[in-house]
Design goal:
alpha+beta, single chain, globular
Length: 107
């Protein structure tokens, strides 16, 4: 007996959006938010009730505690625009900007 398995491209490939290099932090967060909304049903299955961090459309980390997630993510990726949100049904996501540091020239 031969079994045939099929996958759609949607199931086999992650969603990637090619991003120009000169995007503002706000633009990056908006793109990641759109990816989150597209993948929300799928993400609910694995991460419901948890906070997730998305980079380039991929979940890079998750935790039930936002502060712990943010500490790990910023320690690994540096202080840059990273979309973090709680995965819950019918809840709007909120944008929290990365901390901004003054240049040593300004001090």
């Amino acid at each position: 007996t031969t079994e045939i398995y099929t996958l759609s491209l949607h199931d086999a490939l992650p969603i990637y959006i090619v991003k120009p290099k000169n995007l503002s932090d706000e633009d990056i967060l908006e793109i990641e938010k759109k990816i989150f909304e597209q993948k929300k049903e799928e993400l609910l299955k694995q991460y419901e009730g948890k906070y997730i961090a998305l980079v380039d459309g991929l979940v890079i980390d998750s935790d039930i505690d936002f502060s712990e997630l943010a500490k790990r993510v910023y320690a690994t990726y540096g202080y840059r625009a990273i979309f973090m949100t709680r995965v819950i049904r019918n809840e709007k996501s909120h944008k929290i900007s990365s901390p901004k540091f003054k240049s040593t020239k300004d001090i």
